[in-house]
């Protein structure tokens, strides 16, 4: 009996139906229960479970959550959002700015970063303009996932591909194969969301209000920390283009931006106390449960038994989309890369892996870490939640259209 796989399926079912049950357990509690179950039943040793928790990702999330709390608590995030989105005169224009702006920023600052900072902004925009928050949260989720496809630093799996297989030509490869289809995919995402939620984005006029700072001293620190984040990201881009991106890990960038908040902010204790600890617990538990499932070898054996042709572009694109729902996109990429090494491997196979493993996050809510961040962040503010089907129905349409777009481009280009 494959206990870890059974536990994983039970966790998925519990998360899918939690909104129609009286308890309405938060997703972090469900995932934590799943991780505790595999440890308690001896499916994974405690020491192995601890090693499974990725310290780099956990550190990245901690420092980015800290910066986000400073931006939000000080009121600077509201002021920044007003400056960025005040150009939208209608709800339709606001949706366009959310999809295009968040999509493009996610290619530069990594999708998880934009998910962290963007969630409170979406909730603020919903309150200010009387728009239901769920369509805006979905627009944020789909846009940060989609936009991150076109850059080697847009998400962790792309970075893994860039550093492991394309250390000297990552930006050129991503630019050639993925920039144009990503822009088209963002446009398709906007049109699909506008059609799907036409009652919310019918073109009603908006009146923007200028936000006031609640804590000017904290806002000043948060502003400089945000500028430092941008500067370190530019350095990361240059180093990655030169084939030395591994010399500046993403957790160092996050720490460099978050440390000023921790050291200089007058309300540092309150920021740490109100940090999004439930999301950190969710990720720690997810690492443990996924490691337990991975160690059973179930997916590896099934993959080999199916006789899948790994050197077919369309196959890699489709398989990576569906397998990412079960074992997460970063472990999937880690599995594929050793099988795609060699001088004869076409670059577009790697680009198919990058595209498929990333847009997998648009299919189901747990297909991408950024989705979980948005879900947990919205729920932690006791305002809104995204249901499994609320995400999956428009997500399936968006994923299907995007799969066709990326597949066509990858097949046509040599």
UniProtKB/TrEMBL annotation:
Single GO MF annotation: arsenite transmembrane transporter activity
Compartment(s): Cell membrane
InterPro entries in the cross-refs: Arsenical_pump_ArsB, Cit_transptr-like_dom
Membrane topology: Multi-pass membrane protein
Regions crossing the membrane: 97-124, 136-154, 174-197, 218-241, 247-265, 277-294, 314-337, 349-374, 386-413
GO cellular component: plasma membrane
Key words of the record: Cell membrane, Membrane, Transmembrane, Transmembrane helix, Transport
Domain Citrate transporter-like: 20-342
Family: Belongs to the CitM (TC 2.A.11) transporter family.
Name listed for the protein in its UniProt record: Anion transporter
């Amino acid at each position: 009996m494959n206990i870890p796989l059974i536990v994983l399926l039970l966790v998925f079912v519990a998360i899918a139906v939690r909104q129609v049950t009286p308890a309405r357990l938060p997703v972090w509690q469900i995932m934590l229960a799943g991780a505790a179950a595999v440890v308690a039943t001896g499916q994974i040793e405690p020491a192995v479970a601890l090693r499974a928790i990725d310290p780099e990702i956990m550190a990245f999330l901690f420092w980015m959550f800290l910066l986000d709390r400073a931006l939000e608590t000080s009121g600077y995030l509201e002021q920044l959002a007003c400056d960025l989105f005040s150009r939208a005169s209608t709800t339709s224009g606001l949706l366009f700015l959310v999809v295009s702006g968040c999509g493009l920023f996610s290619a530069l600052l990594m999708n998880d970063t934009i998910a962290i900072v963007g969630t409170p902004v979406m909730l603020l925009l919903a309150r200010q303009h009387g728009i239901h928050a769920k369509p805006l949260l979905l627009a944020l989720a789909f846009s940060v996932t989609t936009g991150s496809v076109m850059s080697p630093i847009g998400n962790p799996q792309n970075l893994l591909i860039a550093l492991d297989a394309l250390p000297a030509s990552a930006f050129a490869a991503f630019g050639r194969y993925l920039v144009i289809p990503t822009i088209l995919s963002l446009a398709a995402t906007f049109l699909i969301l506008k059609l799907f939620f036409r009652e919310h984005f019918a073109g009603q006029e908006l009146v923007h209000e200028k936000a006031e700072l609640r804590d000017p001293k904290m806002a000043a620190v948060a502003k400089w920390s945000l500028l430092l984040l941008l500067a370190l990201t530019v350095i990361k881009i240059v180093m990655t283009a030169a084939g030395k991106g591994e010399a500046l890990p993403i957790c160092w960038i996050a720490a460099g931006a978050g440390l000023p908040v921790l050291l200089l902010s007058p309300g540092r204790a309150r920021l740490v106390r109100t940090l999004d600890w439930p999301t950190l617990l969710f990720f720690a538990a997810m690492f443990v449960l996924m490691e337990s499932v991975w160690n059973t070898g179930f997916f590896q054996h099934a993959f080999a038994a199916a006789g899948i042709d790994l050197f077919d572009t369309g196959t890699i694109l489709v398989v990576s989309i569906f397998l990412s729902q079960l074992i997460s996109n970063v472990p999937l990429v880690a599995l594929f890369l050793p099988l795609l090494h060699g001088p004869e491997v076409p670059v577009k196979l790697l680009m198919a892996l990058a595209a498929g493993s990333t847009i997998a996050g648009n299919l189901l809510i747990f297909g991408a870490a950024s989705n979980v961040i948005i879900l947990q962040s919205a729920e932690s503010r006791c305002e809104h939640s995204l249901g499994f089907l609320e995400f999956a129905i428009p997500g399936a349409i968006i994923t299907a259209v995007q799969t066709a777009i990326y597949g066509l481009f990858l097949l046509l280009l040599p």
